[in-house]
Amino acid sequence: MKTLDTHALTLFCAVARCLNFRQAAEQLHMTQPPLSRAIKTLEERLGTRLFERNTQGVALTDAGRTLLPQALHILQLLEQAEQSLQRDKVPTRLRLGLTSSVEAGLFRPLLAVLESSLERCRVELTAAPSPRLIAAVRKGQLDAALIALPSATFELAVLPLASDPMMLAMPAGHPLARKRKVALAEIVHEPVYWFERSRQPAFFDHCQQVYERHGFAPAFVREPLDHHVLLSEVAAGKGMALLPDSFRALRLDGVVYRQLAQGDELATKLGLAWRSDSSHPALPVLRQLALSDL
Q1: Residue 1 confidence class, pLDDT cut points 50, 70, 90
Q2: Is the whole model's pTM more than 0.85, yes or no?
């Protein structure tokens, strides 16, 4: 006996379920003549008739009734094997970048939900300035990144997310600490810590435009890379710092945070960036969660 192929078994099961060649052909998205020929070929291979055809309709023969459960079992095993192979193809990790422009705690709720949603996928995190993250996504070293906007994102797909307003960190003993909200004009003669343009060129230029609009040109002091070091220097009275509001989570004696009148204009906007040609299966979940949790 010749070896049976699964396509022939699929056609047989369709006719056996419908007991009507026309309906089975419609379900299989084919015409009736080739279906009838395929069943005839299968019967010739097996050396026995599988269906009785008469004016009353179609019925399974004894051989057909014997073959049906075996054919269904074979097709079920094949489907289970295909599903198992597809699961094995799912990447075991999602390489996600997190911008260091905002306080890391801002991402905690999203990361918690993400890890519980991706059962078989380990989330590997990389924290860095946005330009470095963008370069890593473009090179395929990261699958996606939560970046600060505006940034030069080149050909990457970007989903705009939340906004983190700018606020002011100042020494607790400073006279302006008595106010709830401080304007840029009130600190124009104070030493103000600010980051170097090379760390985030597009955002630096955006803020510079806002400063020029408000005539804000203080004696800027180079900002330390580590925010804990920065706040220690603020606590020591060496200057003030303009920081995204999420950094309120960092508590240090001698430092107070105050709302900035121009905080929304200087806000750090967040976005999710990924390669537009990426087919990583976790990306749809990540995009959906990022919209709802950031």
Answers
A1: very low
A2: no
